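BUG: 3D viewer hangs when loading the predicted structure for this chain

Environment: internal workstation, default settings.
Expected: structure renders.
Actual: progress bar stalls at 90%.

Input used:
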Amino acid sequence: MKDNSQAAPRGTRTGFTTGACAAAAARAAVLGLAGGEIPARIESLLPNGQRVWFDVHNGRSDETTAHAMVIKFAGDDPDCTDGAHLTVDLTLLPGQAQEVTFHAGDGVGMVTMPGLGLEVGGPAINPVPRRNIADNLREAAPQLLAQHGIAVTISVPGGQEMARKTTNARLGILGGISILGTTGIVRPYSTAAWRASVVQGVQVAATVGHGLVALTTGGRTESFAIAALRSERPELPQACFVQMGDFLRYALDEAVAQAIPLVVLAVMVGKLTKIAQGETITHANRNVVDTDLVAEIARRIGASDDDCQAIAAAETARFGAELMVERGLGDAFHHALAQAAIDTLLAPDRYDHAFALRVMVCDFNGQCVADVRSAPARPRERPATAGRTGIDHLLDTDTASDL
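Structure tokens produced before the viewer hung:
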């Protein structure tokens, strides 16, 4: 697949995640470890199944080690890791067939607190990038992996400084950045063009005549929503599903403008908590998860005082959700949190039941943990703006404060 991301018009250019860049570097390096040369350019497999070409730098290898680096391109997303050198060092693990281990080098953070779905004391390399790296290693050098294992060390020079511009320290990730990415693609979520594309997606959903739009926060929640909703209504086209990213406000405003009677939100617990606390722009840099709210939800369903205090003191909503699952209160907790989000969004000072709202919550394995529905939408006349097309109205009203 040819990489055209940098040739796209500015404002719409996609980029690649730290995980995708690390996977490309690892794929290039393993070719050297397998006895060949490390290429100057490599076609790498992304988590979403796409194949993209990456330039490779500083390649070197011997019989037991290999080294390669890929420079991250973030597209038009204002990402502090744009230009980062995703550096991978591989070490052969003789006789440990198919084993792939992960280690943090300079500039990659270490996990010091629970609630992230990663081992405390381990490297801040998320599960999807780990699988993607392992997939690329096994695909590029199957004979080598059939006999031996590989230790993967990821480094990002300057990562400590980059991490100061993130929420990593607050989340207990210390010493550098995280290696992230569920699809491999970075979309310009913080640009007017991407917000406009969300609005356009809702407009298209309104035209296909199924009476609903399913709003998702990314690839994982979209796959979850498609599977769940098509099991009920197999005829639903792809146009009914819109990846809104962090821009719930723009998506819901347009759903009202288009008089769409049913909005489905497919979310995970972190974004759900932000919605319940009243945030409609849910980017990590815009607001902080209110763990006091998470603790209050836990208290309502009968959690102990000690657990509620631990949840309030935590840095992530996920910590509270996982603790409630451990206590056998997971279903009640997720249902109550989803209902709180519905109550917040449909309050008279917000969307005031202009649409019916269904909140579907999935866990980090893509399994449904709550499915909560509001009352039907209140009767109303179709607005004059309904059925409009185009995105100029959004671009004309964007302000710097919305970035």
